[in-house]
C-alpha cells in the first residue's frame, strides 16, 4: 500500500502541479510574444489601416510617401464613429493603387508618440509627407470616407488639372455644374502656388489651371485671374489677382464658397452642409409650403432682393412640408405659420422678423438693411412658465421669468441650460435633482434649469448643452460660468465657496485623457461631454 501510495504520488505529482505550471509558462510565452511584437518594426494592418506604434512609426514614414495617421483613444465615442469610414477610405485608396495610405495610433498606449505630435484631443488626424516627421499637416477635410479619400487624392496628385488649349478648357467647363480655373502667366509664381493650396483644400470643387496666352484672350483676361464658371446664376465670375498683395488663400476660399452657392438656396438634405459651411454671417429665410402655388410665387420678390446682399446675407427657401419641417421648432414655428420670413444672425443665432410679413423685394431689402444697421431688436422665444415652476426643488425658468429669478439680488442662482434631446444633459439630470434637493431649504440658493431650445435670452448666448451659469447675489448682474466636473459634491463645493473652486488641473489632465472634440463643452474646458447646437 505504501508502495502504491508512493507510486501514485510520483505519477500524480507532476500532473497535479503541472497544469498551473503549464498555464504560467503559456501566459509568460504569450506576454513575451506580445512584447516582441511591440518591439518589432513590423507593420500590421487592420481593415487596410496600418497599426502603428513607436517602434514601427519611422519605418511606416519611410515606406509611404503620404501617410494619414489617426491618433485615437479606444474609449472615445467620436473615434469609434470614425472607424468604419476611416477603414473604408483606406480600402478605396489601396484599391486604386494610390501612394496615400492610412494608419492609426492608440495614443493612450503610445504616449511617446502622442507627446511628440502634441495630441490633446481625439481623434486627431495628421498627414505625413515624404517621411517628414517634424512638420505633419493637420487634416482639414470631412470625417467621412469620401471626404477622406478626396482630401488624400488632392495631395497625392495635382490639385488642379492643366488646361492647354481651347477645346480642352471648353470641355472642362462643361463637365461640371461648377468649376474653378486659375489663369496664371507663371505657374511657378507665388499666386499660382497659393491657388494650388486652395485647390488642395476645397476637395468638393473641381479646379483647373491655364497659362497659355490664347486662353487669356478667349476669356477676356489680361492679367492673372481666378475664374468661377457656373451653369446657374452668373455664368462667369472673375477674381483678379491683386498685383501688389498677391493671392490671399483665405480670401479666395471665402469668395469661392460664397459664389459657388446659388443666389437663392433651397434647404434640403443635400444642400444643408453647403449652407452652413459657407460662413455667410446672416441667413434670410423664406418659409413656405411648396404645395401651394400662391406661396411659391413669393419666391420672385425674394430672389429679386437677394442680389444686393451676396456674401453678407444668404437667401434660403425652406419648405415647411419637406426637409424644412425639422427646423421649425428651432424658430418656435409650425407649418401653419407659412408663409413667413425670418433673418438669422449666425454668430449668436439671434432671429429677427418683420412686424408684419411683406414679401415684396423692396420691403425685404429695407428690413434686412435695418437689421444690419442695428435698428431691429431680435425676436426671443419663450415658453409659458409651468404652474408649478417654483414648487419643485429644481426651479423651471423660461425666457419671460429668467430675469426676475436669475438677477434677484437676494439669491445665488445656479442655472442649467439644457436641450431635452441632449444625452449629456440627461446623464447629469439626476445629479442636478440631488443638488436641488440638498439646497431646497436654503433661502439664499436657487437651483434652476431652462430649456434653451424653447427659450432665448437677449444678453446670454448658449452654444452647447449643458451649459451651467452661476448668478451670485448682490448688485451688478454678475455671471460666472461653471467649468468643472458635473457631480453633486463638486457642485456643492462650488456653491459653498461662493461660485469658485480651488485651482485644480483640468479634468482631462487628471484622468490622463484628452477630451473628444465636439464632446468638450462650449466654451471648452469642462472636460466632460456636451452637445453642440
Task: Compute the separation of the termini in Å.
Answer: 84 Å
CATH architecture call of the largest domain = 3-Layer(aba) Sandwich
Largest sheet: 6 strands, mixed
Rg over CA atoms, rounded to whole Å, is: 31 Å
CATH class of the largest domain: Alpha Beta
- What is the strand content? 15-25%
Q: Identify low-pLDDT runs.
A: 1-21, 505-527
What name does CATH use for the topology of the largest domain?
A: Glutaredoxin
Helix count? 17
Shape: flat
Query: Can you give the mean pLDDT?
Result: 86
CATH superfamily of the largest domain: Glutaredoxin
**Count of domains:** 4
Protein name: protein disulfide-isomerase
Catalytic activity: Catalyzes the rearrangement of -S-S- bonds in proteins
Biased composition (Acidic residues): 20-30
Keywords: Chaperone, Disulfide bond, Endoplasmic reticulum, Isomerase, Redox-active center, Repeat, Signal
